[in-house]
Amino acid sequence: MKSGKLNWDDLKGLINNNKSVKRDEVRVRNGVGEDCSVIDFGEYECVISTDPITGAAENIGRLAVHVNCNDVASCGVEPLAILVTILAPEDTTYEEINEIMRQIDEETSKINVEIIGGHTEITTAVNRIVVSCTVLGKCISGRAVSTAGAQVGDDIIVTKNLALEGTNIIVNDKYERIKNVLTEEEIDEAREYINKISVIMEGKISGEFGVNCMHDITEGGVLGALWELADASNLGFKVYEDKMPISVVTRKVCKEFNIDPLRLISSGSMIITTKNGESLVNLLKENGINSTIIGKITEEKGILVKLSEGEVIVPQPERDELFSIY
């Protein structure tokens, strides 16, 4: 099997064929596109998400925090606690593990999330360090926003620029090649993208604004995230390539490696659907967050409108473009 997420049909089969128990307390349960589960505890509900970091060498601790906290934020919920599992090969030093935990402690301090547990192990089962985290959030019962809530006619908004995470990973891990493509100023810009990875602020603002659906853009890029959102909501979408917010630096990096920025891992950007996109875009801007309306939710089919080709049906997402250069 190829590196990356399982293909769409295999993943769907694994999830749907292994749901023997369904508890009444679980309000939102596992499904393709649903990054969080929601458990009802009466007056409050708990929002839970888990994810590993496998595609990066640099900043793995920082990414592990934000990738997982972003999932909870995509429900319009503030994350409050995190559990950390580190699996490391035998040649790993204590200093390397300590640096990962230092990064995790530093990033969780910025967003007021407590490290409450986890597991650390040296094992021959991995050939590079893997960090997997589980994050918990809490909100008033019924308030958490699900990926499955999109409605026909909703504006589709993305925040910040796309492929921030992917660009940062490539520039750090492939510096010897990328230094011939980017200026030092552009390399510094790409390295600063790590500081834009969190979507907690836009999640909180959008949750209070009242939106139908949110989904953070991770592995598979914006097109993969749109596919997941549409499948969860049993709807389609129509988006426009020329409206996608992509930085000059990201375009240069993707051109050098012949990869599609619309299919590149994009933590730091969130998809939001709402009937009143312009108002939300303005509200986010007032809070220092740039966002862009890229299209609308439709009755059926996922369509990307390209300037050169017109309407193109978006296929099921395959592995992230990041894996094609490793």
From TrEMBL:
Pfam families: AIRS (PF00586), AIRS_C (PF02769)
Annotated PurM-like C-terminal domain residues: 151-303
Biological process annotations from GO: protein maturation
Superkingdom to which the source organism belongs: Bacteria
Domain (PurM-like N-terminal) ranges: 33-138
Protein family according to the UniProt entry: Belongs to the HypE family.
Protein name: AIR synthase
Naturally occurring in which organism (per UniProt): Clostridium manihotivorum
Highest classification ranks of the organism: Bacteria, Bacillati, Bacillota, Clostridia, Eubacteriales
